[in-house]
Amino acid sequence: MFNRGAIGFGLDFQYVGQTTDNTTRSTYTFSSHDLGTPHPERMVVVIAQLGGTSPAVSSMTVAGTTLTNATGVGLAGVRQVIRYAKIPAGSTGDIVVNVTGTVTTCRVAVYRFNTAVTTTLDAVSNSATGTSVSADDVECVSGGVVICAGISDINQTITGAWNGADTLTQDYSTGGLGLARFAGNVLTNEDIAVNDFSISVPSSDSLVVSAASFAFSRG
């Protein structure tokens, strides 16, 4: 259900899990969703991946806290965003995604880690019609983490790749309801600003890709 690791200097990182709602709605509420272990400096990061007609995210909250947008992109019938907030308390909380357009499916994927950092180091999104697309020149630092996401408007095999020295951990790569969705993370051990995250698929389609990089700080 989740993976967990310690980044340099002891940053405790956890992929908590994902939940999908395949019902047409204007508001998606994922009640009492697992948020991982509470901590005074817990950062909660949520990927939201949508399918439908002109789908978009107007706002997101976790346990009543409004999330800050790191990055996001849409193309044709798919859209995704990566948003985050400091949420110290509670092992569970409601995740609420308010959407516009006609949205027929919404998936949320939850990550958490403990850090004094309050914003992203870097965030990049891109979209294209084809068999691959990349988020280029993602800045990262030793002891950080990059949260990666991709989506295709066709239910097909979707593969993620990271061209840096560190390993991309795939958290999921799944189809369903005419879409294919990917999420993963990279625990970074190099200071560099030219690494790329990409997704690829066998059949040409509308593709979107996003990456949000966070740096560890002891405040």
Features:
219 residues, mainly beta, eight-stranded antiparallel beta sheet, six-stranded antiparallel beta sheet, 14 strands, globular
Summarize the structure.
The chain has 219 residues and is mainly beta.
Can you characterise this structure?
With 219 residues, the protein is an all-beta fold. The chain has one domain (3-214). Helix content is 0%, strand content 74%. Strand 1 (3-7) and strand 2 form a beta hairpin. The radius of gyration is 16 Å and the shape is globular. The model is unreliable at 1-9 (pLDDT under 50).
For the terminal residues, how far apart are their CA atoms?
31 Å
Sheet having the most strands: 8 strands, antiparallel
Helix content: under 10%
Q: Indicate the mean pLDDT.
A: 93
Strand content: over 45%
| Rg over C-alpha atoms, rounded to the nearest angstrom | 16 Å
Low-confidence parts: 1-9
Task: Please render the helix and strand layout as text.
Blueprint: E1 3-7, E2 11-21, E3 25-34, E4 42-62, E5 65-66, E6 68-75, E7 78-86, E8 92-114, E9 122-140, E10 144-152, E11 159-162, E12 168-176, E13 179-188, E14 192-214
Antiparallel strand pairs: 1-2, 2-8, 3-8, 4-5, 4-7, 4-8, 6-7, 9-14, 10-13, 10-14, 11-14, 12-13
